């Protein structure tokens, strides 16, 4: 059965600055990666060198037939020291915005994608005394380069940031099940909510901008008899962040797999379940579930933009299989009246996945030595869907 998407539907691919630019030396993540006692197996280093090769990346997006590109502005580059705003770095990101517009691509700009300046972390991070005002000032400094931008994500996956903060406090290193993380550090969550609202107040000075944030949708599902516990998990780890978006211009949905909650908490997938390179269950229907759940929480007045969805796999045919299933579910939700404005695949490039280069999410592979980009068959398949609007 085929599915047809709206004519003005945004088809795109997403990246994040720290994961693709390279040498983000003023950030907290760079310091963490390169600390002598870091437990991360690999470093970001030069990453994909997209800081210099962004024109080539945008050419790929355009030539595939996509219409949108999501990228992030790196706060640590823009403000490498407190109060010092780099005009050169702002000019760099303005060139990326203009590069999108010149190619007919709709830029989707993220202002905070996990990394912060090292000085911000040293001052207490999101629970520091001046955290929200510091973020507000950073957002204000970026406003002049957003001319022509319609979609701005204030904070990427605030629920993940708050849950990771809780994990660090508990001395944990990783979760065993995707999404099976401790409840968010509520102080961090509250600070991020305040920062998001402050950013939206600043962005209101640009009448063309639609602002919102993106949430990591865990697609919680209840095993038999665990409905109440599953609802509890969903509320603390996801729904409180979705509810903040009730008055926003849009909400970003980011979904990859599901988490099944039983009487004792998250349940590992069956031993014979299909898995991705991240160890997550292969579950394309996660996107449909996340979109429907988000629509139920935020209401019909808030449009949805799928800002991330994809799969970590070394088998490109499996990437097509997963994406086809995810898009089929998305089409069902749209047919039922859910207001979805676009789909941005994660990721454009095989990139640095927060400690490892092994999970390959990209539509395009990148040679680690030469940075040569090689377009995968999945990218051309996806481009054909985007060109025709037909799955």
Précis, in short:
With 391 residues, this protein is an alpha/beta fold. It has helices at residues 17-20, 28-34, 50-64, 75-78, 87-102, 118-122, 131-142, 158-170, 186-203, 227-244, 286-298, 316-335, 377-388, and strands at 10-14, 68-72, 106-110, 151-156, 210-217, 220-222, 251-255, 259-262, 265-266, 304-308, 340-346, 364-366, 373-375.
Which descriptors would you attach to this protein?
globular; alpha/beta; 13 strands; 8-stranded parallel beta barrel; single chain; 3-stranded mixed β-sheet
What does this structure look like?
- With 391 residues, the chain is α/β, with parallel strands linked by helices.
- It has a single domain (10-385), classed as Glycosidases (TIM Barrel, Alpha-Beta Barrel), CATH 3.20.20.
- The chain is 40% helix and 16% strand.
- It contains 13 helices and 13 strands.
- It has helices at residues 17-20, 28-34, 50-64, 75-78, 87-102, 118-122, 131-142, 158-170, 186-203, 227-244, 286-298, 316-335, 377-388; strands at residues 10-14, 68-72, 106-110, 151-156, 210-217, 220-222, 251-255, 259-262, 265-266, 304-308, 340-346, 364-366, 373-375.
- The strands form three sheets. Strands 1-2-3-4-5-7-10-11 form an eight-stranded parallel barrel, surrounded by seven helices. Strands 6-8-9 form a three-stranded mixed β-sheet, with helices on one face. Strands 12-13 form a two-stranded antiparallel sheet.
- The mean pLDDT is 96.
């Amino acid at each position: 059965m085929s599915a047809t998407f709206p004519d003005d539907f945004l088809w795109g691919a997403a990246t994040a600055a720290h994961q693709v630019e390279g040498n983000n030396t003023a950030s907290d993540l760079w310091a963490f990666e390169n600390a002598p006692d870091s437990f991360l197996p690999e470093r970001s280093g030069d990453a994909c060198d997209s800081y210099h090769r962004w024109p080539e990346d945008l050419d790929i997006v355009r030539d595939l037939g996509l219409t949108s590109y999501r990228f992030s502005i790196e706060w640590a580059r823009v403000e490498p020291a407190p109060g010092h705003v780099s005009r050169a770095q702002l000019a760099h990101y303005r060139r990326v915005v203009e590069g999108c517009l010149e190619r007919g691509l709709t830029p989707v700009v993220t202002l905070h994608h996990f990394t912060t300046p090292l000085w911000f972390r040293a001052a207490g991070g999101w629970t520091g005394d001046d955290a929200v005002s510091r973020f507000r000032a950073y957002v204000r400094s970026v406003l002049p380069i957003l001319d022509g931008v319609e979609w701005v994500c204030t904070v990427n996956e605030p629920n993940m940031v708050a849950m990771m903060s809780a994990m660090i406090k508990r001395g944990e290193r990783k979760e065993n099940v995707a999404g099976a993380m401790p409840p968010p550090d509520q102080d961090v969550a509250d600070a991020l909510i305040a920062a998001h609202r402050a950013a939206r107040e600043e962005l209101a000075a640009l009448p063309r901008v639609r602002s919102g944030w993106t949430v990591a949708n865990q697609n919680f599902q209840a095993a038999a008899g665990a409905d109440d516990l599953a609802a509890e998990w969903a509320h603390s780890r996801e729904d409180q962040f979705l509810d903040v978006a009730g008055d926003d211009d849009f909400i970003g949905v980011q979904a990859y797999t599901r988490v099944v909650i039983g009487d004792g908490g998250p349940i590992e997938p069956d031993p014979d379940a299909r898995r991705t390179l991240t160890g997550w269950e292969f579950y394309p229907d996660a996107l449909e579930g996340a979109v429907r759940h988000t629509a139920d929480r935020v209401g019909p007045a808030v449009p949805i933009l799928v800002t991330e969805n994809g799969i970590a796999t070394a088998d490109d045919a499996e990437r097509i299989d997963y994406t086809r299933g995810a898009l089929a579910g998305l089409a069902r939700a749209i047919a039922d009246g859910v207001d979805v404005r676009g789909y941005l695949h994660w990721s454009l490039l095989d990139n640095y996945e927060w400690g490892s280069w092994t999970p390959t999410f990209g539509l395009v592979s990148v040679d680690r030595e030469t940075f040569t980009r090689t377009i995968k068959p999945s990218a051309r398949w996806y481009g054909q869907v985007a060109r025709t609007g037909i799955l």
